[in-house]
Every structure is written in C-alpha cells, then in structure tokens.
UniProtKB/TrEMBL annotation:
It comes from Methylobacterium terricola. This is Spermidine/putrescine import ATP-binding protein PotA. The keyword Membrane applies. Belongs to the ABC transporter superfamily. Spermidine/putrescine importer (TC 3.A.1.11.1) family. It catalyses: ATP + H2O + polyamine-[polyamine-binding protein]Side 1 = ADP + phosphate + polyamineSide 2 + [polyamine-binding protein]Side 1. It is found in: Cell inner membrane. One of its GO terms (molecular function) is ATP binding.
Length: 368
C-alpha cells in the first residue's frame, strides 16, 4: 500500500501538442496534488486522452514541461516514470491466469518469487479477486476483468495511476458499482490518480477535482460541486449534467441584478455576471432540479416566477421531468421527486407556474 506521504504530484506547465498542423493540446497548465484524484472531462477530440498519454510518456509534448514528483520527465521513457496505467480495453494477456496477469510487471522487474507472491496476494485481496487467481480473463465478467487491470496497475506501487476511459465498456449498473469501488480503492492506497472520461456522472462521482477541456484547452477546473453548480461558460453548463437554457435580452443592470425579458415576453430579475450590459442578448441557464412546478403560495416570495403550459411529463422512477411551454417556442423543464408516489399529478395541457431562486439562474452572453 502507498501511504499519503509516498504519493507524488503531477505538474503540467504550458503543455502543447500538435498532430501535423492540428493543435491537439494548447497551453495546458495544471498542478495535481499528491494523493488527489483528478478527471479530465470533455467531448471526443478535446485533448484529454492526448494529455493523459503525455503524462504516461506515450506521447511527447511539443512544448511545455511535465513534472512528476517535482522531476522533469519530458524525455524520460514510460517504463522509467513509475506509472501504473489502466486502458479502456484492459489489455490483459488472455493466455495468463489472473494471478499471472497481476504479477507481470513485478516479473519484468525481476523481483524475487516470494516477494512477487506476497505483493500479488495483497493486490488481489484489495480488489477482491483472491478466489479467481487461477482463472483466465475469458472466464471473467467485465467488472472482474476491470479489477484485474486495476490490481496489475497498483501492484508495482506506482507513483501515479492513470486511467483511460476505464469503465466505458461496462453496462450502466456495473459502471456505477465500479465507480464506487475505484474511489474506495484510491482512498485506500492513497495514490495520485488521473483519469480520462467523457461521462459527466463518472467524473462527478470519482473526482476530487474535474478538469473540463474544450478544443485542446482547459476551460474550467474545480471540485465536482463547483463545475456543476457554477459553470463558467455555456459549454461547461451544457456538457456537465442536464440543463435548461432559454434566450433573453437584458433590459437593465442595476446593483448586480439584471432585468431580463425572455422571448415569450415574460420578465425576470436575476443576478448579473460582470461584463453584462443593457440590450445584450443572453442565454438563461438553470438546472431542472432547481425549478419547482406550481410552488405553494408561501414559497413564492423571493422566487422568480414563470408561467406556462404543461406539455409532457416523463416518469423515470425516482423523479419526473415536467416539460413546460413558456411561449415563443421555448421550454423549461422542472424535475420533481416522486417521493412516496402519492402526490397528485398535474394535468397535461394545464396552465402551471414555475418558480426558482434567482441565484440558481446563470446568465451567459449569447453566442448568436
């Protein structure tokens, strides 16, 4: 096991990478603290996997510095960086048993048989694979193969663990289970961990910090709560989680509050971000769980209220999503907990009122 005092940090300073004339990574600077688990999140082609591969030494940066534990590793071979890596396809040897797969890295280091056996037994116990030591990968489930890949990565006691879309091949239920297990394992071993994902829920579940990338650049870094609750751009708000967005125009900005008229003609007052001005076109963004359908009279003071017509209600088990037409072709969605299931369902086609706290509405300058 790696103690927190043994963990090392990863430091990226102005890192760039081109593929021919195409910039894949542009001026990425990031300090990852020892023992921290950080996710790189973004759509395909945003540069997250290239960044991970440069940390691993599988790609060479065209500019900038990569430091692990304070030491510059730009020109250090991958096998000399003391890094463990788990690939999306697990990359297990099909002709080897589980125990032999886990022991492979130790055998390549020519460690003694007794030491290898002890370390393999400890790593397999950590991921609950001991009873499966003699099986081949083809005899394992997807989750079990994932555990083998993790055990093989941590058994060499690496300074940094890198995970490249590690759960993408699993079904939803197993993926959610493995998210919890990876987080627990990471806390147990205390290893600095960096992983790549395009799954927003996975990043929020696993990370101490989330690094959101777009077009090769880091556009926001923060805790899961920070990037979800206070996204800095329309891109981040759209990419992380499910959100509402409607168009509007600022009528006035006074004392940090903006009066905004929506396309439907309804007017609301919301907090104004710096740089917004009267007559500016904006996008109003709010999470469905922050919107209440038909709030009771006692809850309405202090709320921003919008009227509309209920068009659809989508039941998903724990919650129901109510789609409300607020006019001019715009829709707001309110998420309601189903609770004990005995609440009276609103009637489709009926007039409704939506309420939300003004501070939960984000205002971004419109891109059009």
């Amino acid at each position: 096991m790696i103690s927190s005092s043994d963990a090392v940090g990863v430091d990226l300073r102005g890192v760039r990478k081109w593929y021919g004339a195409v910039p894949a990574v542009r001026d990425v600077s990031l300090a990852i603290r020892p023992g921290e688990i950080v996710s790189f999140l973004g759509p395909s082609g945003c540069g997250k996997t290239t960044t991970l591969r440069m940390i691993a030494g599988l790609e060479h940066p065209d500019a900038g510095e990569i430091r692990i534990g304070g030491g510059l590793v730009n020109d250090v071979a991958p096998w000399k960086r003391n890094i463990g890596m788990v690939f999306q396809n697990y990359a297990l040897f099909p002709h080897m048993s589980v125990a032999e797969n886990v022991a492979f890295g130790l055998a390549m280091r020519r460690e003694g048989r007794a030491e290898i056996d002890a370390k393999v037994a400890a790593a397999m116990a950590q991921v609950r694979l001991t009873p499966l030591a003699d099986r081949r990968p083809s005899q394992l489930s997807g989750g079990q193969r994932q555990r083998v890949a993790l055990a093989r990565a941590i058994v060499t006691r690496p300074s940094v663990l890198l995970l490249d879309e590690p759960l993408a091949a699993l079904d939803r239920k197993l993926r959610e289970q493995m998210q919890v297990e990876i987080r627990q394992l990471q806390r147990e071993v205390g290893i600095t961990t960096v992983f790549v994902t395009h799954d927003q829920e996975e990043a929020l579940t696993l990370s101490d910090r989330v690094v959101v990338m777009e077009a090769g650049r880091v556009v926001q870094t923060g805790t899961p709560a920070e990037v979800y609750e206070r996204p800095r751009s329309r891109f981040v708000s759209d990419f992380i989680g499910f959100t509402n967005a409607v168009a509007g125009r600022i009528e006035a900005v006074e004392g940090g509050t903006a009066t905004v008229t929506m396309r439907s003609g309804q007017t609301i007052r919301v907090p104004a971000e710096a740089g917004l001005a009267a007559a500016q076109a904006v996008d109003l963004v709010v999470r469905p769980e922050k919107v209440e359908l038909n709030p009771p009279a006692e809850a309405r003071p202090g709320r921003a209220l919008v009227s509309g017509t209920l068009r659809h209600s989508v039941y998903t088990g724990a919650v129901t999503y109510h789609h409300v037409d607020i006019g001019a072709g715009e829709t707001l969605i309110a998420m309601a907990s189903n609770g004990d299931g005995h609440g009276e369902a609103p009637v489709l086609g009926s007039p409704v009122t939506l309420g939300f706290r003004p501070e939960n509405m984000l205002v971004f300058a419109s891109a059009v």
